Amino acid sequence: MKKLGKYSIGLGDRFGHQGHAQLKAIIEAGKKGSDITPVWNKSNREHIIIGTQPSDVRLEADTVTKNAGFKKPYFVDADHINLDTVDKFTGSSDFFTVDVASYIGKRADDTEIKNFIGAAGKFAGKLEVPGIKKPLKCSRAQLQNIAENYLFAAKKAGEIYTKIERSKGAGNFVTEVSMDEVVTPQTPVELFFILGMLAFEGIPLQTIAPKFSGRFNKGVDYAGDPLKFAVEFEEDLMVVAHAIKEFGLPENLKISVHSGSDKFTLYSHIGSIIRKYDKGIHLKTAGTTWLEEVIGLAEAGGEALDFVKEIYIRSLEKIDELCAPYADVIDIDIKSLPPAGEVSRWNSKKFAGSLRHIPGNPEYNPNMRQLIHVAYKLAAQKTDTFFRLLEEHKQVVGRCVYENIYNRHICRLFDI
Ligand SMILES: [Zn+2]
User: Fold this and answer.
1) DSSP state of 218
2) pLDDT, averaged in runs of 10, over the chain (416 residues)
3) Which helix (H) or strand (E) element contains residue 149?
4) How far is ligand 1, taken at its centre, from the CA of residue 187, in Å?
5) Which of 93, 88, 98, 209 is closest to 157 using CA atoms?
6) Rounded-to-integer distance, Cα 204 and Cα 250, Å
7) What is the Å distance from ligand 1's center to 286 Cα?
8) 196 alpha carbon – ligand 1 mean position (Å)
9) pTM for this one?
10) How far is the CA of 330 from the centre of ligand 1 (A)?
11) Could you tell me the distance, in angstroms and rounded to a whole number, from the CA of residue 299 to the centre of ligand 1?
């Protein structure tokens, strides 16, 4: 069976030019004793907006690993696929993030609900989970509620899994189930029973992506109480271990945090909790590589700086259109966006400093950062110039990409 390693990181590279710089960060972490499996992820939404195909991501991953002589496992993730979108990914991907968000809240058949409660009912009442001091409470009514909310989604996950398995063959790919793109977070009790449902569907699940409390906006830090998150995360970790035992799920099943990148206030908590229990983690990052490309081009100055200024100015004009697909994962305070006239006079340092996520830097502007994050569509409309500039300035851009992944993410999470 294709097995995902204990530590893995999901890397987004929207335009497919930075795989080598991302891999360099993985290789460096390996030298420092943290063996991390790279997983290149790209969603259907990103493919459509940019006009790329899943085979492009496969080609990038194969090429950069070959060029670097990287002999360890790596994966290509069909990110957030569902029954409608999975087909075009089956040829190129060996990691599938089965997104059941849109099926949550739909009701399964009464007989199916009854069968599930029949099988899992023994866990209702007080659920004793090793590692969690107080037993988790789950009344019969609550269990009924969980089944009504999630069983249909679990069945759909089973359907999607079977479809992939038919095409790729059992054991030839890694399966993740994601439920993060919903409004309401799942509690640890819910997570336990959802894992039970997925096990009953026969899904050899290796990662599960729950929705945690708080906001995980793209490319900026966590909005919420990090200490509360830590308690929730630790309970989820214990619940996953218990579910592996009770439901016979794969031993290496681990939590996948769809972080949206840059959750700096959470990384030390996640890191110390997984080390305390000797557990694995999959940290999925968003396509912030694009932001690093913009920062690198800004630093390069001249035509490259003018190009990214133009992107920003056009993003102000098209703000509603650009933000719409990302409404649930960005929070932009429009009043705090610098006006076009002002930005057009900025130098490299000011532009790069406004975008680069250095907490405490007075120039850093998370609103501008989030807007640029969703503005990649504008670069996709000018790929001739954009790719030429990336090529001309690949040293500076590559350094930005590397430093972002290595220093700001990997070092913080793995305590390097
Ligand atoms: Zn996600």
Assistant:
1) T
2) 96 96 98 97 93 96 98 97 96 98 96 96 92 92 96 98 97 97 94 98 98 96 97 98 97 96 97 98 94 98 98 98 92 97 98 97 98 96 97 98 97 96
3) helix 140-168
4) 17
5) 98
6) 6
7) 9
8) 21
9) 0.96
10) 13
11) 31
